[in-house]
């Protein structure tokens, strides 16, 4: 029983990081209608930015906040400079831009910071005031912080004027323009938010997987799996999908003999299974419409 | 100078030309209707004003040259477009749709007041304010589309076939509410219709469109009463 709880809690922690990545992917998908294959590499780059601030002597939380803020700006700029010019181009051109971004960020990180693996400190103190044999302090902090971030994102979309306009711009760009929404800027804002949320995921996962240019490769796959499982049209579904993937992955690793080698295979099998049998995902809405 | 003035307007979808040297104007506070069969260019005319198609020629609105504007800037100048097919945000609630209509405005108290006013024009919307717009009936969606346009406090409303796909009773109801809106708000309207009879009853001026050009124009009652026009162009 204790093993089960340990695996589940650790799964929720890693799953909440997948949720961040899945949510980034879904937000870009809603804005631009495509998977951003570079989402993980952008998050990795953000983590290096935080690491650089740390190296300059900034406290860890300040480094975190600065890196997330810069990532937001970078997301907006990338949309404006690279994605917008190809928005009417054939789909293959757009996918090449995303793959190009992936390779560029990966190599730039290696070039600037080298490919050697670096330890990355946890945002959270090793001692929260109580000890638990079921869950470590970093994992506990991860769950708490991601829940907070997701709650903030939810409130932003649900209760603010700009959040409503962003949803409208994604759902029906023509009508959104007709009521005066600058759809282009809303898409850029979506990219910015996605990059910021991805940065949170990167900084949280770095103490677990260590900092290196390829650190997000696996995480992005799990994030994709989460997004697809939850439903690529549903931000809430993506979050739940990420959590489910995290827990399942940990169960496979803990209970299946040799399972820790099979974790990534498992994620890919899940992606394929979802695409084959339930393409809308668990929570993806098939829009009901009366005419 | 007319409130809205369109001169020598050509419009294109890629390489296909849809309007050929269109001329018309609209006086402030008036309702002008553009009539014509399918494919005559009615919707394209409205889309040209809102900068949703490529055009040549002049479009002037209250001193502004709209041809250099973006769609959202046209909206911010007070032109509210009720598009073909209603264009409601189907997954958002009725109330959110109305809030979005007021996106260009800041004053929350006034917006709340205007939502109330829209509900008083269209009582069915009040009962469904938390419902997803996509679940409304066709007539209710049309009401929502007009209500959303009103939320802009428009100086000019563009209405694209508000009767489309609706039964005669609900069409009568919507047109009588449009008449009320005109009387109470004094909003100028540019109304595009296939249902010539009902549009001519509401409008002050009318233009007849055929394959992208104006073939006749004049006061609504004159066009309505002209036997030849009715036979050749309006088909009733």
Global Rg of chain B: 17 Å
Tell me the radius of gyration of chain A. 19 Å
Average pLDDT value of chain A? 91
State the CATH class of chain A.
Mainly Alpha
Mean pLDDT of chain B: 93
- Straight-line N-to-C gap of chain B: 35 Å
Euclidean distance between termini CA atoms of chain A: 53 Å
- The CATH superfamily of the largest domain in chain B bears the name P-loop containing nucleotide triphosphate hydrolases
CATH topology of chain A: ABC transporter involved in vitamin B12 uptake, BtuC
The shape of chain A, in one word, is globular
Tally the helices of chain A.
11
SS element count, helices of chain B? 10
Order of helices and strands of chain A, N to C?
HHHHHHHHHHH
Q: What is the CATH C-level name of the largest domain in chain B?
A: Alpha Beta
Return the structural class of chain B: alpha/beta
User: Uncertain runs of chain A with pLDDT below 50, 5 residues or more?
Assistant: none
Q: What's the β-strand tally of chain A?
A: 0
Shape of chain B: globular
Strand order of the largest sheet of chain B: 6-7-8-3-9-10
Order of helices and strands of chain B: EEEHEEHEHHHHEHEHEEHH
**Oligomer designation:** heterodimer
Give an account of the 3D structure.
The complex is a heterodimer of chains A (291) and B (236). With 291 residues, chain A is mostly helical. Helices cover 75% and strands 0% of the residues of chain A. The longest helix of chain B has 18 residues. Chain B is globular and about 45 Å long. With 236 residues, chain B is α/β, with parallel strands linked by helices. Chain B folds into 2 domains: 161 residues, P-loop containing nucleotide triphosphate hydrolases (Rossmann fold, 3-Layer(aba) Sandwich); 67 residues, no CATH class. In chain B, strand 7, helix 7 and strand 8 form a beta-alpha-beta unit. Classes of the chains: A mainly alpha (291), B alpha/beta (236). The interface between A and B is medium-sized, with 23 and 30 residues.
């Amino acid at each position: 029983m204790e093993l089960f709880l340990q695996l589940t809690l650790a799964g929720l922690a890693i799953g909440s990081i997948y949720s961040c990545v899945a949510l980034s992917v879904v937000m870009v998908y809603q804005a631009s209608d495509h998977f951003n294959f570079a989402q993980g590499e952008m998050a990795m780059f953000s983590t290096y930015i935080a690491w650089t601030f740390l190296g300059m002597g900034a406290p860890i939380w300040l480094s975190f906040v600065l890196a997330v803020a810069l990532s937001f700006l970078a997301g907006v700029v990338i949309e404006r400079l690279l994605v917008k010019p190809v928005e009417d181009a054939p789909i293959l051109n757009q996918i090449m831009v995303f793959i190009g971004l992936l390779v560029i960020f990966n190599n730039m990180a290696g070039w600037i910071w080298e490919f050697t693996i670096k330890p990355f400190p946890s945002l959270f103190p090793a001692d929260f005031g109580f000890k638990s044999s079921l869950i470590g302090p970093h994992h506990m902090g991860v769950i708490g912080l991601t829940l907070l971030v997701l709650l903030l994102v939810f409130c932003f979309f649900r209760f603010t004027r700009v959040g409503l306009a962003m949803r409208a711009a994604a759902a029906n760009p023509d009508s959104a323009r007709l009521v005066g929404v600058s759809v282009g800027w809303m898409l850029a804002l979506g990219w910015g938010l996605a990059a910021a949320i991805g940065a949170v995921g990167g900084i949280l996962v770095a103490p677990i997987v260590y900092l290196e240019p390829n650190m997000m490769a696996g995480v992005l796959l799990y994030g994709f799996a989460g997004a697809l499982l939850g439903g690529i049209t549903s931000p809430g579904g993506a979050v739940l999908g990420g959590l489910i993937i995290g827990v399942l992955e940990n169960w496979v690793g803990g209970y299946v003999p040799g399972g820790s080698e099979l974790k990534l295979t498992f994620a890919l099998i899940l992606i394929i299974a979802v695409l084959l049998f339930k393409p809308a995902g668990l929570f993806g809405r098939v829009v009901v419409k009366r005419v | 100078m007319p409130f809205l003035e369109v001169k020598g307007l050509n419009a294109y979808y890629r390489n296909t030309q849809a309007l050929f040297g269109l001329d018309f104007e609209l006086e402030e506070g008036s309702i002008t209707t553009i009539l014509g069969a399918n494919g005559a260019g009615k919707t394209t005319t409205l889309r040209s004003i809102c900068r949703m198609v490529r055009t040549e020629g002049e479009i002037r609105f209250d001193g502004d040259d709209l041809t250099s504007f973006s769609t959202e800037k046209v909206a911010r100048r007070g032109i509210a477009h009720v598009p073909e097919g209603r264009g409601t945000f189907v997954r958002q609630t009725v109330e959110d749709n109305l809030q979005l209509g007021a996106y260009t405005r800041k004053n929350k108290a006034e917006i709340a007041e205007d939502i109330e006013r829209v509900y008083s024009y269209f009582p069915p919307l009040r009962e469904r304010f938390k419902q997803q717009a996509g679940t409304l009936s066709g007539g209710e969606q049309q009401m929502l589309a007009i209500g959303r346009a009103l939320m802009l406090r428009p100086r000019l409303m563009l209405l694209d076939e508000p009767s489309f796909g609706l039964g005669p009773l609900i069409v009568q109801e919507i047109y009588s509410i449009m008449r009320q809106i005109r009387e109470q708000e004094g909003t100028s309207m540019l109304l595009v219709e296939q249902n010539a009879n009902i549009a001519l009853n509401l409008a002050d001026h009318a233009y007849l469109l055929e394959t992208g050009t104006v073939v006749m124009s004049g006061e609504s009652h004159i066009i309505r009463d002209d036997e030849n026009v009715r036979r050749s162009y309006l088909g009733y």
